[in-house]
Amino acid sequence: MSIAWVVFRKELRETLRDRRTLMVMVAIPILLYPVLLIATEQFALMGIRRIESEASEVAVTGPASDDLMEFLAADQDLELLDVPYPVEAIRSEIVGAVAVFGPVAEEGGTQRATVLYDAADERSQRARTVLARALRSWDDTLLARRITERGLPPGFADPLAVADSSVARPEELGGYTLGRFLPMLLILMTLLGTFYPAIDLAAGEKERGTLEPLLTTPVPPRQIVVGKFMAVALIGVVAAALNLASMLLTFQTGLFQLGGSLDIEFALPWGSVLLIFGTLIPLAVLFASLFLGIALRSRSFKEAQTALTPVYLLVMVPALLPVFPGIGFTVALAAVPVAGLGIFFRELMAGSPALVPSMVAVATTGLWAWAALAFASASFGREDVLFGVGDAHVETGGGFRERLRRLLGPVSDTPSAAQAIGFVAAVAVLFFYMGFPLQAGWGERGLLLSEWLLLLLPAFLFVGVAGFDFGETFSFRRPEGRKVLGSVLLIAGGMPLGWFLAWAQGFVLPIPWDMLEGLEELITAESASRLLWLLALLALTPAICEEVVFRGVLLAGIRGRASAVRVAAFNGLVFGAFHISFESAFRFLPTAWLGFLLAWAVLATRSIWVGILMHFLNNGSIVLMASVPALRAWLEDGGEAPPWVLLAPALLAVAMGVKLLGGASDDSKMMGDAADSN
Amino acid sequence: MIEFQNLTKTYGPLRAVDGLSLRVERGEVYALLGPNGAGKTTALRCLATLQAPTSGTALVGDADVREQPLVVRARIGFLAASMGLYERLTPVELLEYFGRLHHMEGPALEGRVAELTHMFGITPFASQRCGTLSTGQAQRVSVARALVHDPPALILDEPTMGLDVLSGEVIYRFIEAERDRGKAILFSTHQMAEVELLADRVGVLSGGRLVAEGTPASLIERTGERNLARAFLALVQGDDGSEGEGEDISPEEPA
Ligand SMILES: Nc1ncnc2c1ncn2[C@@H]1O[C@H](COP(=O)(O)OP(=O)(O)OP(=O)(O)O)[C@@H](O)[C@H]1O
Ligand SMILES: [Mg+2]
Q: What pLDDT digit, counting tens, does each position of A323-382 carry?
């Protein structure tokens, strides 16, 4: 029996007994796709249910014709009520919308009608839409009547009829939507499938001291490594296959298509399935050799994780590429490792991909896999990679491993500044390309999803995959009561100051008030349940998700590299920059200020809970204020200076907050720094 | 059977092993003594082909560690101080794996594994995963692992580290049995009692150099001390008190 085969079987057996590998390999694929589908479906259902819910209550006042009243009464979507005072009826939610008719027009003239509604109430908005639709169709009826009365042809008032029709077939539509996400998932899951086994089989062997006995057996190291490589590659292929199978089972068989409500028909011909699976094999080989080649050079599990994480993140970028809009299937892109294959999968799922780039993508993947294999086996052959690394002593002199280590930064419990900033940059890109479309498509739910999926989840994945310490990186620490009080004071005073800041900034950077109205509409609650939802959406969610990214990962990376003031200021600047989009540059300064205060408090307490509390208080009080009519008036009166009386108490609160936070604490050195520069 | 020929291993400026020469014959037990950091592990690792000597060499039989590492490995059973077992394999699976790596298979392998599990009292936990074994149980599996191919030379780096009296006894009986079967056994230790009980000859390493060699009785006699522990102290302190190695010695129980 060949030694490589012996090693392969043993590694496989051992890996299959590892709960973590099994999780990644089996549990995740089995759960991921059904959950994805059910979630998508639920969101879609919610939207549909809302639109198709009970008829809207409306009323008509003024001289409306009996014909019209009959027409409206016949409309299933409307419930016609009688109300004496239209505006009050809408305010008190008796009806959603009221059509107020003007004087009856003379023969051939125009009668005017106004639809009253409440723009701040979703039900009212819906009622208005339905009522307006009915009135428009009545308008069409009247027009048609006039035209026939005058003996004109029916098309007289409609010289040009324009209609659009999509040429996409249903399966193309479904494939297109899914095709953007699924290739990325497939590639990432293959990647994840090889990640832990590679570390475990290479660095894990050194760490547990099993490498030495292994290397005193009379077999060439290369044989051992070939066996290990085959095991990792096979695990990657199996993970890929399970993912593909679960994906097909979920989306293709309709097994999970509960209501059939989703307009996704996802049909992947068997030829394409085989093609995808076939190309996932070289991809698994590529990842396996890349990871194993690097992991072999690491001394311990932790070191391997730290060395592999940047590679992992680097591979994620091309894997994400097919998701981005406007990425075509060009020959040049097809040759990019991982990305080419991702786009190929995307095209395959959406229909028939262009032949030449497809061939390029498949061929280059094979080529890349071969190159990675060569790289890996080059390091396998070098005995110094295997020998002498296993012992606990530190070899003097800097080999390749040492240089690599220095390149990647020290092995530590928390990310380095570069790693943390790189992570935030990656999250920002992710948010930009996926968060905004999510919000545009799914509104408030999209916003909720984007915070949890695009901020919180990546942060936990980043820390988990890189092997950083969760407690240290995220500052999960119980704060002292006194400091909690200090941070509450800090935010209580900081908020009015932020308001002044925004107002002052308004002189330089005009605030787009029309846009703000939309924002205000979003944050204004009319009922108690709506208020709760808004608090969850706009206060609690960002308080958790954004804190974990900015006062968790980012702050962990930069704290201690400069004085506390500088660190907090930098943190605030990045936080502010993250909130800039094309139209909302004005948010930069107030948000950066908020970020500064939050970072300050978290630095002083080393507790992210304080940041979460302050963030919640800040956002929550804005939501509350917008819901109180008297306070709302202020917000509506844009451009007016905030009440100056607030200035003194605000400053006082901030000063007291800083004092409480900075008193005799165990971090006195750091806070001492801060106090000096203040 | 085992021979060091002027072997030197340096780490940068440090001479971890400095011109070591010694021989261990068939049917002989040789104990390597020395304070922490004396170079025992380094010397044994060079012999086990885990590290390349800087100069000089070591032989097992007629095979040179530099020229025929695979032949050397086939002839030695090496027990590293940091014993490592595959946590998710059972002792039996582990022994079979190493047997196969030594090109054994079929009934011969099965028979040998059965013999070893019996010899080291592994049977009660033979189907338990190695990750769940106690230190002593794990050490016994490690020793069995080093012997699976029944090598003519045994190299054991602190074989009784962390063992209770009973488990230590198992190892002693086994070392004696193997000597009687004509094996050459080279082991390092800090236990003087162990040396007096087992060793035919003793070598004392200090600062990488062999400062004394002989039977336990001859060392005691030469230093004029009461027992081996005192003789050892005299030898290493007398040799390189200048290097400050003396205070590294943990107090030994007098034998
Ligand atoms: N890989 C290495 N890199 C640098 N120095 C090393 C390395 N391995 C060992 N050394 C040094 O070589 C010297 C001898 O170490 P060795 O492990 O051989 O001692 P030892 O006699 O086995 O000690 P102990 O009784 O503590 O096990 C020590 O000073 C040690 O620090
Ligand atoms: Mg040692």
A: 776 677 888 888 888 888 888 888 887 777 888 888 888 888 888 888 887 777 666 555
pLDDT digits (tens, 9 = 90+) for A142-151: 888 888 888 8
**Chain centroid to CA A75: how far?**
41
Going by alpha carbons, the residue nearest to atom 30 of ligand 1 is B37
Would you give the end-to-end CA distance of chain A in angstroms? 73
Evaluate if residue A469 carries a pLDDT over 90. no
At B72, which amino acid appears? V
Residue ranges with strand state E in A350-476: none
Q: List, as one string, the DSSP characters of A498-516.
A: HHHHHHHHHHHS---HHHH
Phi, psi for residue A220 in degrees, rounded to 5: -65, 135
- A190 contacts: CB under 8 Å, gap ≥ 6: A236, A237, A239, A240, A243, A280, A283, A284, A287
Radius of gyration from C-alpha coordinates of chain B: 18
List residues in chain A touching B: CB distance below 8 A. 1, 3, 6-7, 10, 13-14, 17-18, 205, 208-220, 387-388, 390-393, 395-397
Torsions phi, psi for B16 (to 5 deg): -70, -40
* Strand residue runs (E) in B2-122: 2-11, 14-24, 28-33, 55-60, 63-64, 76-79
What residue's CA is closest to ligand 1, atom 7?
A393
With CA atoms as reference, report the closest residue to B97 among A232, A205, A24, A293.
A205
User: Can you state the angle between helices B165-180 and B135-147, rounded to 10 degrees?
Assistant: 10
In percent, the amount of chain B with pLDDT more than 90 equals 54
Q: Compare A401 and A61 and report the one with higher pLDDT.
A: A61
Q: What is the ipTM of this complex?
A: 0.86
Q: Give me the pLDDT at residue B187, please.
A: 94
Contact B2, B47 (CB under 8 A): yes
The tokens describing A367, both together, are 């080529």
Does the predicted model carry a pTM greater than 0.95?
no
Q: What is the CA radius of gyration of chain A?
A: 31
Cα gap A301→B129, rounded to integer Å: 21
Q: Encode pLDDT of B75-124 as tens digits.
A: 999 998 776 899 899 999 999 999 999 999 899 999 999 999 998 889 99
Long-range contacts of A503-506 (CB under 8 A, 24+ apart): A503/A641, A503/A642, A505/A586, A505/A589, A505/A590, A506/A586, A506/A639
DSSP-assigned letters across all residues of A122-173 = HHHHHHHHHHHHHHHHHHHHHHHHHHHHTT--TTTT-S----------HHHH
Quote the CA–CA distance of B192 and B255 in Å, as a whole number: 7
CA distance B129 to B88: 6
Judged against a pLDDT cut of 60, whether residue A669 lies above it is answered with no
Q: Which ligand is nearest to the CA of B80?
A: 2
Q: Which residues of B touch A10 (CB under 8 A)?
A: 86, 89, 93, 97
Domains in chain A: ranges and CATH: 2-43+170-385 (no CATH), 54-149 (3.40.190), 470-677 (no CATH)
pLDDT band at residue B144, thresholds of 50, 70 and 90? very high
Q: How confident is the model at residue A212 (pLDDT cuts 50, 70, 90)?
A: confident
Most confident stretch, A20-29, A304-313, B223-232: B223-232
β-bridge mates for residue A98, sequence order: A59, A116
Q: How far apart are CA B102 and CA B105, in angstroms?
A: 9
Q: Tell me, in angstroms, the distance from the centre of ligand 2 to residue B41's CA.
A: 4
Of the candidates A14, A217, A396, the beta carbon closest to that of B88 is on A14
Which of B72, B78, B100, B149 is most worth mutating to test chain A (most A CB atoms within 10 A of its CB)? B100
Question: How far from each other are the two terminal CA atoms of chain B, in whole angstroms?
Answer: 30
Counting atoms of ligand 1 from 1, which one is nearest the CA of B44? 18
Q: What confidence category does residue A399 fall into, taking pLDDT thresholds of 50, 70 and 90?
A: very low
**Domain topology for B2-83+153-239:** Rossmann fold (3.40.50)
